[in-house]
Amino acid sequence: MYTLQSKWRYLIMFLGVQLVVMALLSREGYQKRVSYFFRIFRKPDSTMGHSVGGRNHTDVYANLSLLGPPVNKEDMPYCPKQSPLIGGPIHVTFPSRLKLAEVERKNPLVVRGGRYRPPNCEARHRTAVIIPHRNREHHLKFLLYYLHPFLQRQQLSYGIYAGNYTFNRAKLMNVGFREAMREEDWDCLFFHDVDLIPEDDRNTYVCDAHPKHAAIAMDKFGYKLPYKMYFGGVSALTPVQYLKMNGFPNNYWGWGGEDDDIGVRVSLGGMLISRPSLKVGRYKMIKHKHDKGNEENPKRFNMLAKTRHTWKNDGMNTVEYEIVSRDYQPLYTNITVNIGTEAGLHPTKKKRHKS
Question: Can you name the CATH fold of 50-354?
């Protein structure tokens, strides 16, 4: 009887030691499971916004409520070097029923032509955003919905230029540069694809000491830079930088090639490419089918191989186009131009521009 009791006692002690060891080994995992369990029932903090991939995302319009009342221009101080309205990661969705009238209603301080100035301080930076597109009004609506409050949070003085054209993206950006600079002495120009939405307002839309590639981390590339010399999506240059590389090429008709040509021009102009961090330079692409009429350019690789020899004779110093219309919409300036075809610009009675 005594021997049987001893065996049971040793068995119980042995099991007890095993349980203690198991508890110590699994303590961290246990704490994580308990923490997860309580988070399920915890009331969310509305000030933190949405959490995606461990990053708290806010509504892009949330911080605009912090804008102070307008002040007299004589008493207006300069805006702080770091805007207090910047909130970091932004929650991006694409509501199917969004209308331009709703975007206009949510941006009451934006004036005709898509212009904005901070109401209570003098902006330190003046940025023009140029958006070339072809039959992408649906995408433009979403970009304007996010871009206006995004820029206002950064306390910029800005203007947005867009239009619907025969598609030659790089040549259209040359046109946008010239027409924007005709209207105002902008100190920075952002060249922006219509289907890319910025996801973090710490990615400031101001120029750097070198040409800036802002869209360094797109969701379609797994939020990574696809290759070192990539300069596509969203880029920014000062007027001096733009002219130093002779602007963008005029002869890339259709899809592809011009981004790499531009990246090469930056190098040939004796400049480097500036980029934000992968955490900040994030963009979400609006999913879409390939544009009809914007077919792949089969000559792009041969053209790219010749950039070193052609860049000084093909760019801002040779761009030709005809203004068709300039329409000052409530949220942007719409400039429609005739940039001709691959065969050249066909003369008409309309005004002709040439550098």
Answer: Spore Coat Polysaccharide Biosynthesis Protein SpsA; Chain A (3.90.550)
